[in-house]
Amino acid sequence: MDGVIVDSEAYWLAFEDEELFPNALAEPYPDNEEITGMNFREIYDYLDANYEVTTTREAFVERYHETARGIYADDVALMPGFVDLVSTLRERGLRVGIVSSSPPEWIQVVVDRFDLGPFDVVRSADAIDGPGKPEPDVYEHAAADLDADPARCVVVEDSATGSRAAERAGMVVVGYRTEVNAEADLPAADVVVDGPEALRTALLDGD
Fold it and tell me: Which of 109, 140, 151, 184 has the fewest CB atoms within 10 Å, i.e. the most exposed one?
């Protein structure tokens, strides 16, 4: 969802740099890319294991929830070309889903606000019995929901964490770069594209 359906990544990066890190960690702070694409509860575990955390899990989680309400309800816009792309995919008889590290309630805000869907599957890493990205579990659940061979599933991911999860699930991975993540390293992607037109070409005209 984040960075593929809506332009939320810039808002989350600003939140991390300006509010989260200064109020939850002692210096030095991590690089943003270390946690991009992870479930926010697992971000706390990662930071606690690798940095000096200065807040409780409860406060950390609540800070994320409060921020998400504003980001998804008020701030974000749809990524350019997303609606037309999904419409074309559906016209071609392909099933389309959302697989996200965001909790179900955050996903639902986006779906309702922009009148998206219905989707053939919506899977949240926050609502499965298993680890989130970069582990493959959430993508494996989505494939099972669709009764689909993972090797015939194509995933669009804008983060290293997400692309690793999809690759580990045995899916074809299209790495998606935009202005916000133009320098992102996406080593697990089978192909990397820059911008909505290149994404459309890769999904509709690629081999």
Answer: 151
Convert 74-123 into a string of H (helix), E (strand) and C (coil). HHCCECCCHHHHHHHHHHCCCCCEEEECCCHHHHHHHHHHCCCCCCCEEE
Q: Tens digit of pLDDT for each residue in 38-69?
A: 999 999 999 999 999 999 999 999 999 999 99
Order of strands, sheet of 172-177, starting from the edge strand that comes earlier in the sequence: 154-157, 172-177, 191-194
CA distances (Å), 109 to each of 24, 45, 87, 160, in order? 26, 26, 20, 25
Element (H, E) at 154: strand 154-157
Contact 31, 185 (CB under 8 A): no
Report the predicted TM-score, pTM, of the whole model to 2 decimal places: 0.91
Q: Give the burial class of 118: count Cβ atoms within 10 A of its Cβ; 0-12 exposed, 13-18 middle, 19 or more buried.
A: exposed
Can you tell me whether residue 197 is helix, strand or coil? helix
Pairing assessment for the beta strands 172-177 and 97-100 based on DSSP bridges:
unpaired
Phi, psi of 46 (to 5 degrees): -65, -45
Let me know: does 47 contact 23? Beta carbons within 8 Å.
no
CA distance 125 to 122: 10
Residue 207: which pLDDT band, with cuts at 50, 70 and 90?
A: low
